[in-house]
Each structure stands twice: as C-alpha cells, then as structure tokens.
Design brief:
Structural class: mainly alpha
Strand order of the largest sheet: 1-2
Shape: globular
Strand content: under 5%
Number of strands: 2
Distance between the termini: 51 Å
C-alpha cells in the first residue's frame, strides 16, 4: 500500500506544478509539502520492513545531494545578484552589442553564448548570466519565452561533452564507459542541435531589437575586482576538479568567501548603504525551496524502486532506442539517479552507444521545464515561462533533441 500511495502523491505534486497558473499556489510550497510528506510516510510505514536507521541513511544521502546543490546555487546567485545590482552585466551587454540587431540574429547569438559559456562554467552560472542578458532587453513576453527556451536547451547541450560540464557525463567517464577523446566528438552534434532550435524558434521573427544606449553606470574598482574573483572562481572550479578532484561546491564557497573578504577590505573607507554580505538576501529563495521539494520527491521515487525499473527498457529494445527514451525520461526524473541506476545494472553497450547515452541524459532533461537545473532557474526568473508555456515549445525541442541524438550516434561511429 505504501508504494502506490507514494507514487500517487508524487503524481499529484507534479500535476500541481503544471497547473500552478490556474491554482495560483507557488510550486515551491507544493513540492516541499509533498516531498517531505513522502519521506514521513516512508518512516512511518517502511517498505520491505526497513529499519528507521536504514531509512535515515537513505534520507541523509538525499539531503547531502540537496545541500550540495543548495549551497552551490546560493554562492553562484550571490555573485550574479551583486554584479546585476551594480549594472556590470548590463554595461558589458551594451558595449559588445550593436545599436540594433535582428531578432533572428539575436536568437543565434544567445544560443551560441549560452552553449559556449556552459562549456567553460557550470550550467547554473551559465543560465543565470544568459538570462540576465536577455532580460535586460525588455522583450515581449512571448518572445522572451522563446529565448529562455533556447537558453535552457543550449546550456544543457554546452556542458555535455566535458566531464566538468555535466554530472552525468562525469559519472559515465569515471565508470570508464567513455574517454575524453570520445566526449569531444559530442561538440559538433550538440552545437548543430542548438543552431537548429534557434532557427526553428526564430521563424516568424522579423523585427529588430534596439539596444537603448543609456548612460553607462560607473563601475567601481570594487565591482571589477569582484567580477574578476567570480570568473576566476569558475576557472578554478573547473581546473581543481579535473586535476585534484576538488568538489566544485568547495571551490565556489571559497570564491564567495574571498569576495566577502576583499569587498570588506575595499569598502572599509566608503560610505555604503549596503554591506556586501547583504546581497545573499536578494537570492530567490523560492527557487531553492523548489529544488529541495523536487529532489525530495525524486529521492522518494528512487526509494520505492521506480528508477531501477527504467533499466528494463534495455531488455525490451536495442540500446540505441532505449538510450533515446532514457533521455526523454530524464526530463521527468532526475538524470543523476537515473544514470546511477543504469551504471549499477551493468548493461553491456559499445562505446558508441555509451556516447549517445551521455548526450541523451545530458540534453534530454530540456524536454520539460522541470527536467533540469537550467529549466528550474529559468522558470523562477522569467514570469511568463511556466510549465505550460514551455510545453508549447515541445515539438521544436523534440526535433532538436532527436537530431542531436542521431548526430551523437553517428559521431560515436568514429570511435576506433
């Protein structure tokens, strides 16, 4: 009885996310309610007679994943909140952009920027920066939805070929299913799918975007210093992770602490109304609570054994088809436990098939707005972007994903 009850509650939770615009109840509230309720039920009525200690261990593991993501988001969002408030990002946009650009060209430019930035940084930071750029342009809500959709897909595509760009890519690499040289083959199909999506979304766009050349806000030396610390932190995160396996969270928290200390030193003689540490309060905490609720729900789904059942797909069809479907499933279920379940199942696949699986789990989450960290952040930042408005883009997203997946499979044929 417990498993059907848990599955019902999870289904209701995801349904409430879908109809958020109708019921006007914040998704953070509903997911947190059902996420915690599922775990309380697991303690009261253990599955298969598990002891409270076993369930506690499972919950601790789930909480560790949540805390890691929460703290990383908090650090990245604090940096971005500060630079946004000082007009740093807007100033850069106005300097590098022409006085005006066609909406179609802007679509390709934003897609390429998000793809490239996510390749050299984490997906969360890339999403925040890319969204900050388009939101500074004051676009029509319907057009903003298209740009935000492209950003989500581009960000997820950009990091798929690097072990530092996506957690599932790193997991597959560490399990020795693919090599670094194999992964680099994914760059071409991933970038092609982004360009295709940009082309499809820009159909019907014939206007121009005019950049209002406002008087540039004066950028203080302190702001430049913090921007340097921010980008240095991103580079250090990638470098230390590859060379010494330093957890990205640790490096980012170090960068945040350095930001606080340096700013404290530089601002000590200035009359400022706001202390540097106060920018933490500008973070969208409903986004963080939404993350907590969603990951608790996914954790409960894992504990009732549903994730393990997805691996049965490989008994029913060839790996290349099963991989494609697993990518689509990762839009509804967190791709990390999904990948972990597949790796533990010891499914035999060729390097070519593992490469296409890497693309699928990295990009497949883009099919639903709640399927990736980039999507959840975008939904919290862009008011017009909801579950349903994003779902309207599903045909374009599916075509781009399918082309990218087929391209990744073809690229895998080059593996000797």
């Amino acid at each position: 009885m417990v498993t059907p009850l848990i599955l019902t509650l999870i289904a209701v939770a995801f349904l409430l996310i879908v109809i958020e615009d109708i019921i006007h109840v914040n998704k953070a509230k509903t997911t947190l309610f059902f996420g915690t309720l599922c775990w309380i039920i697991l303690f009261i009525s253990p599955i298969h007679g598990q002891s409270p200690e076993t369930i506690q261990h499972q919950l601790d593991h789930n909480i560790l994943e949540i805390a890691t993501l929460w703290l990383f988001l908090m650090a990245a969002m604090t940096f971005v909140a500060y630079l946004n408030s000082k007009g740093f990002i807007q100033n850069i946009v106005h300097k590098i952009m022409p006085n005006q650009i066609s909406e179609r060209k802007l679509m390709f430019l934003i897609g390429g920027f998000a793809f490239l930035f996510s390749s050299i940084s984490d997906n969360i930071t890339a999403t925040l920066i890319s969204l900050a750029v388009v939101m500074s342009l004051k676009l029509d809500p319907k057009k903003l939805i298209k740009y935000a959709t492209l950003i989500v897909f581009s960000v997820n595509s950009g990091g798929v070929s690097l072990i530092t760009g996506d957690v599932t890519t790193l997991m597959i690499f560490l399990d020795e299913k693919v090599t670094i040289a194999n992964l680099l083959l994914l760059i071409a199909p991933a970038l092609t799918s982004v360009a295709l999506l940009a082309a499809m979304l820009s159909v019907g766009m014939s206007g121009n975007v005019v950049f209002e050349k406002q008087a540039a806000r004066r950028i203080e030396k302190t702001d430049i210093t913090i921007a340097v610390i921010f980008f240095s932190t991103i580079i250090a995160t990638l470098t230390l992770s590859v060379l010494y396996s330093v957890p990205p969270l640790l490096t980012f928290l170090f960068g945040l602490s350095l930001m606080f200390l340096v700013a404290q030193f530089l601002m000590r003689k200035k009359d400022v109304n706001k202390k540097i540490i106060d920018y933490i309060r500008e973070i969208e905490y409903d986004t963080l609570l939404f993350f907590v609720g969603v990951l608790l729900l996914v954790g409960a789904l894992k504990e009732v054994g549903m994730l393990a059942k997805f691996t049965h797909l490989y008994e029913l069809m060839a790996p290349e088809y099963a991989n494609y479907l697993m990518g689509l499933l990762s839009a509804a279920v967190d791709n990390v436990p999904l990948t972990a379940a597949l790796l533990k199942a010891d499914i035999v696949m060729s390097p070519q098939q593992w490469l296409s699986f890497t693309y699928a789990t990295g990009v497949g989450g883009s099919m639903l707005i709640i399927g990736s960290a980039a999507g959840i952040i975008a939904m919290s930042k862009v008011k017009a972007l909801t579950f349903m408005s994003y779902l309207k883009m599903s045909v374009y997203l599916l075509i781009a994903y399918t082309v990218g997946y087929y391209g990744s499979y073809l690229a895998g044929s080059l593996i000797s």
